[in-house]
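Lay summary. Proteins are chains of building blocks that fold into shapes, and those shapes determine what they do. In this project we predict the shape from the chain. Here is one chain we studied, written as its sequence of building blocks.
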Amino acid sequence: MKKAINTGYATWPKEGYREKLLVAQYRRMLGAFMEFKGGGLNDTTLEVAAAPTSLVQNLNYLPSWSNSVDRTHATTFCEIDLPSHVGIRNSAGGARDRTGRPGGRRLPFNDGQFDWVYCNALIEHVGSFERQYELLKELTRVARNGVFVTSGNRWHPIEFNTGLPFLHWFPLPMWRRVLKTIGKRSWASESVLNPLGSGKLQELTNLLPGKLKSDIGHVRIFGIKAHFFLMIQKCVDR
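And here is the predicted shape, written in a compact code that computers can read:
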């Protein structure tokens, strides 16, 4: 399942800089997801994303970037109001139906309710390692066939949320103290930003119950791994 995608200067959007570059990255990872799940005409998909805040943007790209065939099938969009509230809306543009409850960490869906689950740029924003595992376990629980999760690479020279170079390579407690000192206090809390490398993604995956196959692909910027996408396939008895 291993996949690698490289992004160079020629692929930067003309309006360019960090936000536009990230959109280009997400588009490539969405393409990797489409290839990962294949072309099942009757497959259902759940997209799980963070509800927009002053820091974390709504990254509900799946409906607008899917091809016309994929758009003909219902995709459910589930928003998580960080850190705990959960809401749902239909990706075709239906009214938002907020069904979450304070303190709830369980997605409001049945086991295996969707064929595929797609989760973009969320796992680094849900808090501690334990909360990241809880999210990944829930994504896997409601998926019948597989899960696709994207995350920035902590070890890329640029930390894309803050836009700062190299400081995130410090031990996390030191990095958070530096963020507070230089006026980036809003990003300094673990509950807001807890960056991951491929090792942590694999560690989280190894804790999951059940029969699973997994692999981690990556998207490069100027030859350096900038984002990872975790692909989990469930071994389904047919």
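What the prediction tells us: The domain at 4-234 is CATH 3.40.50 (Rossmann fold).
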